[in-house]
């Protein structure tokens, strides 16, 4: 008796048979098809195949011969499918070239930036050196200017400047100096005065030209400046004129010192500096005669100390 190809048990008289070359035989329960469905197949039972045979039929035979035509078709199909790949390959190559170009440009840019940074550093050091050199030169120039200013002022250290003295026709300036000497109680010998003259007027009409007297020694000049504080002298008291203007005896300053003294007074007076005077190539300023320390002014920058 035949046996079931699935469970290997003996088959009854009525069973299901596969029409494949294996001629597999099954119980209805092992065949995968219901008995009622099998009955309905009728003549189609002659072509029915079990699941096992159907699966084997789907497996291709790798050893089957391939015709030249099929091979050409296959190669044509592969070539067609590979065509986009070639395009992509060309695109990738172009992209690679572009990336390499940009990379080279980037490297060039970095190199240029490094050069510029180096140049900047070198220029910065050069600028610093030039600034230091400039400051040194400025200091040197300032010192030279100070020395020139001191030298110019030193050349006037025997002089007295007299302002407010009326101009009288035929005046004798030496005689006027003798009158002033008697008023401030100082001896006046003609040989004590080396030169005396009026300076050209720069203030226009209505102002008497300044008188400058140069003594033969500084000690005599200083005595005159010290004693000038003892009297208020009017022009008419020492000349044959009629002007009742007060005359002033001062140190004969250079234009630069005179301007700085004027600026010191302009800024110092409103701030309470009552005493402002020139002494030994510097301007001194005090708010009160009892102040121990005086503000020293030697240039315009020192005016900031007037607080």
From TrEMBL:
Keywords, A to Z, come to: Coiled coil
Task: Give the matching InterPro entries.
Answer: FP_C (IPR057251), Transposase_22 (IPR004244), Znf_RING/FYVE/PHD (IPR013083)
TM annotation in the entry: none
Decide whether keyword Amino-acid biosynthesis is in the record.
Answer: no
Top-level taxon in the UniProt lineage: Eukaryota
Which residue windows are coiled coil?
92-161
Domain FP protein C-terminal, by residue range, is: 254-306
* Protein's name according to its UniProt entry: Dynein heavy chain, cytoplasmic
């Amino acid at each position: 008796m035949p046996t079931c190809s699935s469970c290997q048990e003996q088959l009854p008289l009525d069973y299901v048979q596969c029409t494949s070359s294996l001629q597999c035989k099954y119980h209805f329960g092992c065949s995968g098809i219901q008995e009622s469905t099998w009955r309905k197949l009728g003549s189609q039972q002659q072509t029915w195949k079990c699941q096992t045979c159907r699966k084997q039929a789907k497996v291709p035979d790798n050893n089957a011969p391939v015709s030249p035509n099929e091979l050409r078709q296959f190669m044509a199909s592969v070539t067609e499918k590979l065509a986009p790949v070639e395009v992509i390959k060309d695109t990738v190559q172009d992209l690679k070239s572009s990336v390499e170009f940009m990379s080279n440009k980037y490297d060039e840019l970095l190199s240029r930036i490094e050069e510029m940074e180096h140049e900047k550093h070198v220029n910065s050091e050069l600028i610093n050196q030039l600034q230091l050199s400039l400051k040194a030169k400025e200091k040197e120039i300032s010192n030279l200017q100070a020395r020139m200013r001191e030298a110019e002022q030193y050349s006037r250290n025997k002089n007295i400047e007299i302002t407010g003295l009326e101009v009288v026709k035929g005046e004798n300036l030496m005689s006027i100096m003798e009158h002033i000497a008697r008023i401030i109680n100082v001896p006046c010998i003609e040989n004590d005065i080396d030169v005396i003259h009026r300076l050209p007027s720069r203030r226009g009409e209505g102002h008497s030209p300044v008188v400058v007297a140069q003594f033969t020694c500084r000690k005599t000049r200083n005595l005159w400046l010290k004693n000038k504080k003892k009297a208020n002298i009017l022009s008419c008291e020492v000349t044959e004129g009629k002007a009742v203007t007060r005359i002033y005896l001062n140190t004969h300053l250079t234009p630069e010192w005179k301007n700085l003294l004027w600026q010191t007074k302009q800024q110092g007076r409103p701030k309470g500096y009552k005493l402002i005077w020139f002494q030994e190539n510097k301007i001194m300023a005090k708010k009160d005669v009892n102040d121990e320390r005086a503000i020293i002014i030697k240039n315009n920058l020192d005016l900031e100390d007037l607080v």
